[in-house]
Amino acid sequence: MPVPKGSTIDPERTRAAILKAATPVLYERGLDGIGVAELCALIGVSKETLYRHFGTKDGLVEAMLRARSERVGRWLADAVAAAGDDPRDQLAAVFDTLGEWFEDPVFRGCAMVNAAAQHHDETVRALTTRHLGRYIDLLTGIAERAGAADPPLLGRQLLMLVEGATIVAAHHGAAGTGEQARQAALALLSAATRNDSGGSSGGGDSSGASGDDPGD
After folding, report:
1. What is the DSSP code (8-state) at residue 109?
2. Which run of H or of E encompasses 143?
3. I need a surface site. Which of 4, 75, 116, 129 has the fewest CB within 10 A?
4. 99-110: buried (b, 16+ CB within 10 Å) or exposed (e) per residue?
5. What is the pLDDT of residues 6-45, one digit of tens each?
6. Sequence-separated contacts (24+) of 170-177 with Cβ below 8 Å
7. Could you write out the DSSP letters of every residue in 183-213?
8. What is the mean pLDDT of residues 86-114?
9. Helical H runs in 9-103?
10. 61 within 8 A of 55, measured Cβ to Cβ
């Protein structure tokens, strides 16, 4: 990447710039859909510079997946926090936020799951497992706050809705998918929630927490 005259090279800044430029290209084209030479040409960096900062293309892919997982985790956690204290509103916010992402023209499905399917590599699979674990933690926390009889089970069931909706939106049309998954998730939450005190959660309706989508 060109360095303005009079400035010094900051390795961390250069690495971050390469990662930022490469992420949307790898997401759109797929990990195996573009070679190193074409990728470097598109993002304006030499192969030598890419290899200096990431070692290999696989090193770049792994860095991209780690950064994306962190970003998605924060994005959804922020949506839940903004939804207030009602677990139903928190769960609705997750699916409202995902629904906004599904409607984005650059949406191509879950980058982590796509990567694991395209790249039969133990490191990539481990990163995907950890990413799905972030979802499980978030959704199980909502289930616990709602008073579900078996929060880990409900968290896993909700994860199936999240990933199932993501696949449907990517491959069978995004229109309405987020809202349909939202309705199913809230019905599942209601069915799994103990009614010891006449229902532990309110019926508030969330319009979702708006924010940058994870594809940025």
Report:
1. S
2. helix 122-146
3. 4
4. bbbbeeeebebb
5. 434 688 999 999 999 999 999 999 888 899 999 999 999 9
6. 170/102, 170/107, 170/108, 170/109, 170/110, 171/109, 174/102, 174/103, 174/107, 175/103, 177/99, 177/102
7. HHHHHHHHHHB--TTS-SS------------
8. 96
9. 11-29, 36-43, 47-54, 57-82, 87-102
10. no
